[in-house]
Design brief:
By secondary structure, this protein is mainly alpha-helical. Helices cover about 40% and strands about 5% of the residues. The structure holds zinc ion.
């Protein structure tokens, strides 16, 4: 899945919710550990893998990037689909 497509969907959702999307650099978000916040390019041993050097958290790099983009650009609100 391309980041461009993902961000386009994110923008569309944010606009429909009346919110602004904060520009997030996907390269940085995919280097930040969602568990402890440690950011380093060394957290990405390969294009697909995320492995935090600080806490040992492992995940698929796309998953990590998506989590961090959502956290940085949009704060999900529960029970408010409106
Ligand atoms: Zn970590």
């Amino acid at each position: 899945a391309g980041w461009g497509v993902f961000l386009t969907i994110l923008h569309a959702k944010a606009e429909s919710a009346g919110r602004e999307v904060i520009a997030v650099d996907p390269r940085n978000t995919s280097r930040t550990c969602p568990a402890c916040g440690h950011t380093a390019k060394e957290n990405r041993p390969t294009q697909e893998k995320f492995h935090c050097l600080a806490c040992g958290h492992t995940a698929h790099a796309d998953t990590v990037g998506a989590i961090n983009v959502l956290r940085a650009g949009l704060v999900p609100r529960h029970a408010n689909p409106a």
